[in-house]
Write a structure and sequence with these properties.
101 residues; mainly alpha; elongated; membrane; transmembrane helix; CsbD; CsbD-like domain-containing protein
């Protein structure tokens, strides 16, 4: 668990570094008129921001999983009831009963 959090922080930092590097490339490309460097900078900015967003989503997902595990541990019968109802609904949606003659 601690390794996942450390890796997530590492991904955020790496994304921030890529985004900053992209901003610098974009600015230098704009000053020198180098469209290739400017485009490379914008791409680096995009990938850095996407990496940071993914790390944030991963953290949120971990929180949801922890809440679900706590619910199952604390209220197993309620959890079983919820899963049963969801299973029935999915079954009815995927395999509807046809009209019988």
């Amino acid at each position: 668990m601690a390794d996942d959090k450390l890796k997530n922080v590492s991904n955020k930092v790496e994304g921030l570094v890529d985004e900053t590097k992209g901003r610098v490339k974009d600015a230098v490309g704009g000053l020198t008129g180098d469209l290739g460097l400017q485009a490379e900078g914008k791409f680096d900015q995009f990938t850095g921001a996407a990496q940071q967003d993914f790390a944030d989503l991963y953290e949120e997902g971990e929180g949801v999983v922890e809440k679900a595990v706590t619910l199952v541990r604390d209220k197993p019968l309620l959890s079983l009831g919820i899963v049963s109802v969801v299973g029935l609904l999915v079954g009815w949606l995927l395999f509807p009963r046809g009209k019988r003659s």
